[in-house]
Design goal:
Blueprint (H helix, E strand, L loop, with lengths): L6 H24 L5 H23 L7 H25 L5 H7 L3 H12 L7 H18 L12 H24 L5 H24 L7 H28 L2 H4 L2 H17 L5 H17 L11
């Protein structure tokens, strides 16, 4: 059973938010030397190798059933191949801070999907109100007047691409909930391995063999493979085992803040007031949806 969160749990949670938040500026830097499909493919391959090493060190059993393998294939597409590509392509046309904020919508999308696909996760009135408030925040984020931040002709499509990535992650979360019991590291090894088998041939066919980039984008893509997948997975497992998944869910409040702050500090991105307003509304919706002590009636 999860225990009350300790100081170590809080440090791990903040570190996890920072690692994931830094992935968005990392993608922007990686795009300086890699095409979008290769950013996704290389980080997936490095992530797969990293998790394989972690699994071997931890002695994780990698043999799984055909059912689990089918879920891993779904995860390969929904939580790795599709969102990594969507974010890589979209961040050519939007700031890393914007991409990070859209990830705050993931738990909102999960609320809606869980209502339909996960037993016992029906929308209560507080959840429904929080979901609606969060969608208002999303509308503020991508509404009229925010589309000229980078001046790209593809900015509207790229913004929708970021939201598409958030939807993919949410769907991947539902898949994870419905998957039979399996060690998360072993499951991650199979999901990333299958995603590698998908993305590398696609990248080769569409973008050709990549040329050796300069050190800056190369280090960025190595970071994307090692940290947000490797170390982050270890922290994630540690937090869930000690403090529980509900405590881990608070990382959704941290990631957008770190992505905004790092984008401003290291990439010189503008800190738009509209971004801050949208983030505040989305987080308020999440907090309302996660209120405890309120017995909410299920929404049909």
């Amino acid at each position: 059973m999860p225990q009350p969160p300790t100081k170590a749990n809080w440090i791990a949670l903040i570190a996890l938010g920072l690692i994931w938040g830094a992935s968005f500026p990392g993608v922007t830097i990686a795009l300086e030397g890699f095409a979008p499909l290769w950013v996704a493919a290389v980080r997936i391959v490095i992530g797969a190798l990293t998790l394989l090493g972690v699994a071997l060190v931890m002695g994780v059993r990698l043999r799984v059933s055909g059912t689990v393998m089918a879920f891993a294939a779904a995860m390969a597409v929904l939580s790795n191949a599709a969102p990594f590509f969507l974010l890589s392509w979209s961040q050519q046309h939007v700031t890393s801070g914007f991409a990070g904020i859209t990830m705050a919508a993931i738990p909102l999308f999960v609320l809606g999907m869980a209502h339909a696909f996960v037993a016992g996760e029906q929308l209560t009135r507080p959840k429904a109100l929080g979901f609606a408030l969060g969608l208002v925040g999303v509308a503020v984020l991508i509404g009229p007047g925010v589309l000229a931040r980078t001046g790209s002709d593809f900015e509207r499509v790229a913004q929708l691409g970021c939201l598409g990535a958030a939807l993919c992650y949410a769907a991947g979360s539902i898949v994870t909930r419905r998957c039979p019991e399996v060690h998360p590291v072993g499951f991650g090894v199979w999901a990333l391995s299958l995603a590698s088998l998908l993305m590398v041939p696609v990248a080769l066919a569409i973008e050709g063999v990549p040329t050796m980039p300069e050190a800056r984008p190369l280090l960025a893509v190595v970071y994307l493979g090692l940290m947000p997948t490797g170390l982050a997975t270890l922290l994630l497992v540690k937090i869930i085992r000690s403090a529980g998944p509900s405590f881990l869910a608070q990382v959704n409040y941290h990631v957008p803040v770190w992505s905004l702050a790092l984008g401003v500090a290291f990439l010189g991105e503008p800190l738009a007031a509209r971004y801050l307003l949208a983030l505040a509304i989305i987080v308020a919706g999440l907090m309302l949806a996660r209120r405890k002590g309120v017995r909410g009636q299920a929404v049909a």
